[in-house]
Protein: Mitochondrial ribonuclease P catalytic subunit
Organism: Ictalurus punctatus
Amino acid sequence: MLKKQFAMGSFILTNSRTCLKNLCPLLRHPLYHQRAPQKNKQPNNHSYCTNGERRPSAFHGTKHRDFTQRERTSFPKSVFAAGNARRTAEILKRKSGADQEKVGTGSPKGRAACIAEVPDRALSVSEWRDLKSSSSRPERFELRMMEGMLAAKADISIAKSLLNYVADEKGTLPYELLLRFLTLCVSGGHHSEVSDVYDIMKSCFKTLDTGAYSLFVKGLSQTERWREVLIILEDIKKVITPSSRNYGDAVSGAVLHGDRETAWRLYGELMDQGLMPNQETWRCLFESGVSQHANKDELLAILTYMRENQIYPEEKLVRSLKAWFESLPDENWRGKFTSVDPRGVCQSCGTELESIQLTEEEYAQLKHRVMEDVIEGRDVFNKTTPEELESFKSFVKKRPAFDVIIDGLNVANITPKCVKSQTLLAVVSELQGLNILVLGRKHMQQPSRNWNRHDMNQIKQKAHCFFTENISEDDPFLLYAALHSGNHCNFVSRDLMRDHKACLPDNATRRLFFKWQRGHQLVLSNFIPGKRIHFQRTSLYDTVVQSHGKTWHVPYDEDRGDRSTYEVPQRWLCLSNDV
Ligand SMILES: [Zn+2]
């Protein structure tokens, strides 16, 4: 009988004869086996009705300067437009996170070195032996070779010849090596090899690690053995919750093999787990909808989900979405890829999109959550004392509602070339006529080279000022004053308050916060001392999936358009139903 054991990350084949026989399917048709191992008998081998929703244009009893399209000509593209932060660290972070399920091949430099070492054809056992002995780095040679093949997308016969060599030399195949080989097979779509590796590993181990399971789910779902994926999912569940990618791969297997019922059952399970489905899964489901004309409600629910979670489909998905709508029998949907003009009017059908302004209920909900979770939440007190916040609250309550709040330090630091108080004074002066609050730090009141006493006195005459302790964080103060003042109140800052977005309790509130921010944040364009100040325009319309019943508008991400998390897409799919 075959004895199995896990040891030091490799599996040791204590009975090499049997186990190498297990490997045979994997090593069939190796190009070279002149020195076939003597032990190895080598074989030959919903609709969102926004009709009643109007754009709030004026607010009673408060001054309101329209920072939207009327001043558009002088406003460059919104800071929230996709691509503005293309080269930010955030994108890099997101990208590095996206690859975590793949077996790594190290740094780009290391990867290039790995690729350079890989032979360009399958080698015989003796050729591999020679290559290894001539290598300047014989340690981890086999693993490095396999990683190099993965990075170079090398022909699978080369990888097989490597396995053949290792099996011949050691009578075992280290687990790590087999796992990398499996990665190579899955990424290259080598279905029969995936199937073989599955049989080998299943026969040698009671359980596998979740990385291997994930690879098998992905690989086998594309083969006629896709139903075994359901068993693997159950095995994964004994250890962890399967990832949305695991579910997605299983869904795609079910769809590929025409089992719509299983596909939707798996999708339902994914949603019940509270996982975020990936776009590829949605694409599979929409594509199956095109040929089957079923599950219309479930597919429309995906659009609702995108709306509620502020998700933007990528181009590939949006094309499937379009095809699905256009395929609906007895309906006459036509889709066009288009853009929206600065007033929020669809360039294709002329529909006015939903306003960026929060409705009264939305505003009340946001205010309640922010006051409760951000202002009263414990995190504020890391840097702000409760007494200071209380004194600020009473300061705000004694004054009329503010029209605009300036993040003083942040605004003053816009240009290093200029005296800070001068920059701040220029911004305050530009906003004259409005009821302004300047939030500052106590040190700004100490006359210095950067903080001119005369400038500061003028600022105090033109605006209400509140100076916090130097170490205090200003965001909670800014949020409190803005939300206390009402929906008309804008704020000036270059900061995008991402930290606070993260501490909001749920997706709905985060979405409202983001919407509020895009509608209320004034961002200074390049400031040139002595020149008139310009603010980047705020958007008039909301960038979110929306429908009037006879139309659907879906903002989507263009291919190759890197968009930071706080930016919004600029392209739309317009679907209209002309019955
Ligand atoms: Zn339209």
In short: DSSP finds 23 helices and twelve strands in the chain. The pocket of zinc ion is lined by residues 346, 348-349, 351, 551, 553, 574 (CB under 6 Å). Residues 18 and 338 are 63 Å apart (CA to CA). The first helix runs from residue 16 to 27.
